[in-house]
Amino acid sequence: MTVVTNVLIVSFLAAGLFFFLVGVVGLLRLPDVYSRMHATTKCDTLGAGLILFALILYAGFSNASVKLFFMILFLWITNPTAAHVIARASYRNKVRVCEGTYELDRTGEVQCND
Amino acid sequence: MGFEFTFLENIFIGVSVILVIATFFCLYRAVVGPSEADRVVAINIIGTKTVVVISLIAFVLKQEFFLDVALVYALISFVATIGIAKYMEKGALE
């Protein structure tokens, strides 16, 4: 475990933690389901991907790194799928959007229903 | 006492603690979220955080089978999210 590897692992962990905290701040502060989802999907792919990649560097070439690689692959396939399904369900359920949003097919603003 | 961690293992513990604290803030959104979709998004992100924390703890405690647990947890979390979203969309599970 050389110094260069240590520095790489710590910097990847810090970047992943940064993206996770940005996702949490977006989940708490943004006004709308769709904008909250915009923040949290970044947090899922980048945060989890970077932290698990740092663990791959720590494990070296072994069984554990292969399992972590498949975990990253699985998360990168399933998280956009889940976000897409949630967004479609909330769009068809007419979940309220924040004021100032424009509709998809017209130029008028969406009425806020609360 | 056999609790002597190296430098990187201490950093793993710190990252895990910060992620668990962030999970509690996500839980706030899951409790007070105005619509069902907010709660589903919050539960989804809590699942991802749990997978990452289990992987970090696997390297701290040097138990490699925790990674299998994390994989299965990711699978179950994905299936639960898809199920709840389908239930939101159709009003029934078919």
Largest interface: A-B, 48 and 44 residues
What is the H-and-E element order of chain A? HHH
Taking the alpha carbons of the first and last residues of chain A, their distance comes to 58 Å
- Summarize the biggest pleated sheet of chain A: none
Could you outline the blueprint of secondary structure elements for this entry?
The complex is a heterodimer of chains A (114) and B (94).
Chain A: H1 3-29, H2 33-59, H3 63-92
Chain B: H1 7-32, H2 36-61, H3 66-90
Helix pairs in contact in B: 1-2, 2-3
Would you give an account of this structure?
The complex is a heterodimer of chains A (about 110) and B (about 90). Chain A has about 110 residues and is an all-alpha fold. Chain A contains three helices and no strands. Chain A has helices spanning about 5-30, 35-60, 65-90. The mean pLDDT of chain A is about 85. Chain B is mainly α and about 90 residues long. Chain B is elongated, with a radius of gyration of 16 Å. The interface between A and B is large, with 48 and 44 residues.
Write a concise keyword list for the protein shown above:
heterodimer, A: 114 residues, mainly alpha, 3 helices, B: 94 residues, 82% helix
Brief account:
By secondary structure, chain A is mainly alpha-helical. Chain A has three helices and no strands. In chain A, helix 1 runs antiparallel to helix 2 (33-59).
